[in-house]
Every structure is written in C-alpha cells, then in structure tokens.
Design a protein that fits this description.
The protein is an alpha/beta fold and about 400 residues long. About 35% of the residues lie in helices and about 20% in strands. The protein has a six-stranded mixed beta sheet with strand order 5-7-4-8-9-10, sandwiched between helices. It has a four-stranded antiparallel beta sheet with strand order 1-15-13-14. Strands 6-12-11 form a three-stranded mixed beta sheet, with helices on both faces.
C-alpha cells in the first residue's frame, strides 16, 4: 500500500503507481501537451450544452466568441452543419487569489462544453431543413442554450422575414415538443406491452404511467422540464428533448444592452428560466482583446461583465455542477463535480486511485482560507477540518486528499 496526498500543495507528494496520469471519472489520460501557447490548459468536462437557434440569429458568432474558434459563421441558413464543440473555461476569481497565495505557476479553471448545432426551422420535427441532424445532436446534449435574435439588421436576413423573439421561441419549443410526442407515440405501444407482460414489475408500470403523463403535458403545449407532475428520471431511457434545462440568450443591438424595459419584457417571455442579454458581435470583439482592453470596452458601454462570462457560469450551474479547489506551486485548479458529490467521489475526479484508497480529506472553505491569509494561519484558527467518506462537498472547498493505493 502506498500512502499519499493530493490537493493543497499541488501534485501527489508521495509515490503513486500511476504518477503523471490524470484521471477523470475512471478514464486515465496523459496531461494535454497539444494546446497552443496562451490557451488555458484544461481537460474536457463530460457534460455539454447545445447552442441552438433559428438560422442567422448570431448563434455561430456567439460560439466563435465563446471558444475563440473559427467555426463557419455566415449569413446563410445551415452554415453550421456539423456540430462544432468548444471547451470554455468558467471564470473564477478565486483561482487567481489562490495562485497568488500558493505561488502557482498556472491556473486551470473548470470548463463547460458548448456545442454549436445546425440552425432549426419550422418543420424540423418532421425532418424539414436539417431537422433530423439537429434533433440527434440535441439528444446528445445535457442542456439547451437557445439564442434568440432581438437585433435589427437589414443585411442579415431573418428566416421568417421579420424579428419577433416570442415567435422564434415558440417555433423552437414547438418543434422540440412535437419531436418528443413522436418519440412517445412510438414508445408507448412497447411500454404498454412490457407493462402487461410484467404486471408485477413496478418499474415497468411506473415507466408506462410517466410516459402517459408526459404525453398529456406535451399535448397541452408545455415542455417537461418544469412539469412537476411527471417523474422525468423514469423517462431517461427515451431521450426526450424537453426534459433538458434551458438557457435563453437574447442577442441584442449594443444600444439596447442597458434598455431595462426591453430586458424585462424579454425576460418575461422565458421566466422562470435564466435569460442572458448580450451583443454577439461585441462579445466577439471582446474575445480578441486582452483583459485590460476588454474591461475598458465594457466600462465604456456601461457593462460590468462580458455576457459570455455570465453564460459560462450560468451554464455550469444549469448542468448541476460545482467546483472544489486545489492549489500548490504547480497549479491552482478548479475540479468539476456534481452537486451533492461526496469527498471520495470528488477525489476520484483527480484519479480513481484516490477514490479507491480514500482515507480522509483536509478541507477549508475558500473564504476562511483567504480571511486567514494562508494554510498555516487557517489551521491555527481552527478553520481546517478533517472530513471522512460521508462528507458532502461544498462549492469552493479547498481540499487535500489523503489516500492509500
């Protein structure tokens, strides 16, 4: 058995049989060495958000800004045919403070996968346009970010002729609902047969009941995500689209970013879902500037924060994720876990050996650590605790794991 620890202080400090490998959810990968200079070095999060919208709403422009990528962005329906995937760092000021405290050589934020998916049109649920490809790509996403056009530009055609956010939202929601109804119509005969054949199988009965309830909700024109009367967990095997959480991004003219009346009106269209307001062209400009220049541009427009920074954070939370932090001379890092994860599960994100051989976790909250000034002072103040296998991680825990492998 090889004892060791990892977390505060950086890399594992005792011999580990698989030293030099970084494990994520049971998969071992060598650290990435192929990233271009200046890019944040961060591995891929397993959950993704699909960016959807009607053609020419600024969806690919937004994606380019998110990832500083060169996905095809053109004033032409279906310019995005194959989904483009980008890994986006989640802004986290805590990492900078930890890097300064521990003298960390680099900062590694948590990340979110964004997928740029082909534009949808009315009739997509029956295969119109690129509907079948669109729906297949959405099924693979864990949440949906709908980009809605709220800007006027005579040079950028709207697929329906004029700009009307409420109609565009309804178009996409309707297509998703129709697609789910088709899925249920195909599945129900099989589920009824299974339930009849296995009359004592509680799971089969509950699945049939949930599918029937879902069909009633969809028939009324409502999506399943906000419905409280149906057990959506039981419907997981059907890969329904409207059970996924939604984020709405309104692409505004830059002059409307501080129009509170307009923002309130648009927010009302999608409440209680999250709404983010930005100008995709401005976001693309910001992505090309250094941090100081970008902040100057934002302040000149009366904005405190880039819309994309907000989108990354909201997307991360929408996926039901949170972070814990580690720091040392090599790196200050935010590790991604699901909300409710225990200390051993969190340790397993660094390496499966850490979960398998988990002994305990030395934990201090970020706020307590910063208030104390350093780990030694935090220990002296009684703010550092030893937690066992049943400890549920809190967002912002700064952790060192003790393990035997």
């Amino acid at each position: 058995m090889l004892p060791g620890s990892a977390g505060i202080g950086g890399e594992p400090r005792a011999p580990v049989r698989k030293a030099g490998w970084i494990g994520y959810v049971g998969v071992c990968r060598r650290p990435r060495t192929d990233r271009p200079p200046g890019r944040i070095d961060s591995d891929v999060v397993s959950l993704s958000i699909g960016i959807v919208g009607l053609p020419n709403v600024g969806k690919s422009t937004l994606f380019n800004a998110l990832t500083k990528n060169d996905a095809l962005a053109a004033n032409y329906p279906f310019a995005t045919i194959e989904p483009n995937v980008g890994v986006v760092g989640v802004p986290d000021a805590r990492l900078g403070a930890l890097a300064e405290m521990f003298g960390s050589a680099k900062v590694l934020p948590a990340t979110v996968d964004f997928v740029d998916i082909a534009g949808i049109v009315r009739g997509a649920s029956t295969g119109e346009g690129l509907g079948n490809k669109f729906l297949a790509n959405i099924r693979e996403s864990d949440a949906i970010c709908q980009v809605i056009r709220a800007f006027e530009d005579a040079d950028v055609t709207h697929v329906d002729g004029d700009v009307e956010p409420s109609r565009d939202i309804e178009t996409i929601n309707t297509e998703l609902i129709l697609a789910d109804l088709q899925t249920l119509e195909k599945a129900l005969p099989r589920l009824e047969k299974d339930a009849k054949r296995n009359a004592k199988d509680k799971d089969a009965q509950e699945l049939l009941r949930a599918a029937g309830q879902a069909q009633d909700i969809l028939d009324s024109g409502r999506s399943l995500y906000a419905a409280e009367s149906v057990d959506t967990d039981r419907l997981r095997e059907l890969s329904l689209l409207t059970v996924k959480p939604f984020i709405y991004v309104f692409n505004l003219d830059s002059g409307d970013l501080d129009n509170e009346a307009l923002r309130a009106k648009l927010q009302e269209l999608v409440a209680p879902a999250e709404a983010i307001f930005l100008d995709a062209k401005i976001e693309a400009e910001l992505a090309e500037l250094d941090e100081e220049e970008a902040q100057e541009l934002l302040e000149s427009m009366g904005q405190q924060e880039a819309g994309l920074a907000q989108l990354a954070r909201v997307g991360f939370a929408t996926l039901g994720l949170q972070t814990y932090l580690t720091a040392g001379p090599k790196e200050a890092r935010a590790w991604t876990i699901r909300k409710g994860a225990t200390a051993p599960e969190a340790a397993g994100v660094i390496h499966t050996d850490f979960q398998r051989g988990f002994i305990k976790a030395e934990v201090v909250s970020y706020d307590d650590l910063v208030a104390a000034g350093d780990m030694q002072a935090a220990r002296a103040a009684g703010k550092v605790r030893m937690e066992g296998k049943d400890y549920v991680m809190a967002d912002g825990d700064v952790v060192e794991f003790r393990f035997n492998v």
